[in-house]
Design goal:
single chain, about 170 residues, alpha+beta, VC0802-like, 2 domains, 5 helices, 9 strands
Length: about 170
C-alpha cells in the first residue's frame, strides 16, 4: 500500500469506485484498491507517486469541489511493516533523513485493531530523534497508521495529508 483512504462507514464500495476513477484519470489504470476489514478504511497500491496523487486530488477539489464525494482523508504511505514496535522503529529510523536539522516534528498514531502501546511506541521513536517536538505546529509529522497486523509509516509535511472536508471548507472562507 502507498495510499490510505478513509471514508464514511458503509460507503467503501462507492469510495473504491471513486478512487479508481481518479487514479485512472491520473494515469494508473491498474491500481490495487482493497476495502479493509476495518469500517471506513481502504488501502491503495498505485504505480503513481502518492504525494503527487494527493496534490492532484487537492487541485481537482479546488477546481471542482464535487469531484470527490466519498473519500474523506487521503494519506501517502512510504513504508509498510508488521505491527511490531521494533519493526516500526526500524522503518522510522530509515526515514529520519526526511527530517532536516532544526525542523520540529510530531508523532501521530492512528490505531485500529491493535493492542500495541502508543505510549511505548512514541517513547521509543522519540529517543532516536534529536529534533525538537512541536505538537501544535510541527515542520514534519511522523504518521503511523496501524491496521491490525500491518502498519503504514510516513514522514510528512502538513499539506501531504489531504482532508477533503477541510479543503472544501477552505474554499468558502
Amino acid at each position: 500500500m502507498n495510499l490510505l483512504i478513509t471514508c464514511a462507514r458503509h460507503l467503501e464500495p462507492e469510495t473504491q469506485e471513486e478512487i479508481m476513477r481518479i487514479l485512472e484519470d491520473l494515469g494508473d489504470s491498474e491500481p490495487k484498491i482493497l476495502i479493509s476489514s476495518m469500517s471506513g478504511i481502504l488501502t491503495v497500491k498505485t504505480k503513481l507517486d502518492p504525494f503527487m496523487v494527493v496534490k492532484k486530488i487537492r487541485e481537482s477539489i479546488i477546481d471542482e469541489p464535487w469531484s470527490v464525494r466519498y473519500c474523506l482523508r487521503i494519506i501517502p504511505i512510504q513504508r509498510v511493516t508488521e505491527t511490531k514496535i521494533e519493526d516500526m522503529e526500524r522503518e522510522i529510523s530509515d526515514l529520519l533523513g526526511l527530517i532536516s536539522e532544526g525542523e520540529s516534528y510530531r508523532i501521530s498514531i492512528e490505531k485500529r485493531n491493535s493492542d500495541v502501546s502508543s505510549k511505548e511506541l512514541i517513547t521509543r521513536v522519540a529517543k532516536i530523534i534529536k529534533n525538537k517536538v512541536s505538537l501544535e505546529n510541527p515542520d514534519k509529522i511522523i504518521q503511523i497508521e496501524i491496521l491490525g497486523a500491518r502498519t503504514g509509516i510516513s514522514i510528512l509535511n502538513k499539506f501531504d495529508i489531504l482532508s477533503v472536508e477541510k479543503t472544501k471548507r477552505s474554499l468558502s472562507e
